[in-house]
C-alpha cells in the first residue's frame, strides 16, 4: 500500500491522507475496493479515523470517476482511497492511474509499504517529496546483497525530498 500525505499549510488547515491500493488482487495485498471496509472497521476503534471517514473522505472506485472532472476537482477531504492502476506487488510510478498522479501531485510525504514497493522497485528511487520506505525482507539473497542483512530483517528508511 502507498500512502500520500499533504501536511497542513497556511491555506489548508486539514491534513489530507490518500490511501492507495492495488486496482487488482496480487498475493495478499489489499485492493482499493476492499480498503474502505477495512477503514470502516478500524474507525470503530479510532476517533480520529472515524471523524475523517465521516467527513465523507472515503472515495470508493476512484477509477470509475470521469478523469477530467477528477483532475479539476480533487476532493479536499481528510481521507480518501485511490486505486493505483496496478495488479502486482510492485509499483512503477511512471505507470500509475491518472487519479493517483493527480492526488499525489502536491504530496509532502509518500509512504511505501511492502517489499515489492519499498525495496524491489523503489529502494533507490529519489522523490521530490519526503519518502518513508517500510518493508520486511523475505528473500535471503536480496537481504545479503542489498542490505548486508539477513532474511526477515525490516527496513525503515526515511529520505528527505531530493
From TrEMBL:
<dbReference type="InterPro" id="IPR002791">
    <property type="entry name" value="ARMT1-like_metal-bd"/>
</dbReference>
<dbReference type="Pfam" id="PF01937">
    <property type="entry name" value="ARMT1-like_dom"/>
</dbReference>
<protein>
    <recommendedName>
        <fullName>Damage-control phosphatase ARMT1-like metal-binding domain-containing protein</fullName>
    </recommendedName>
</protein>
<dbReference type="InterPro" id="IPR036075">
    <property type="entry name" value="ARMT-1-like_metal-bd_sf"/>
</dbReference>
<feature type="domain" description="Damage-control phosphatase ARMT1-like metal-binding">
    <location>
        <begin position="15"/>
        <end position="146"/>
    </location>
</feature>
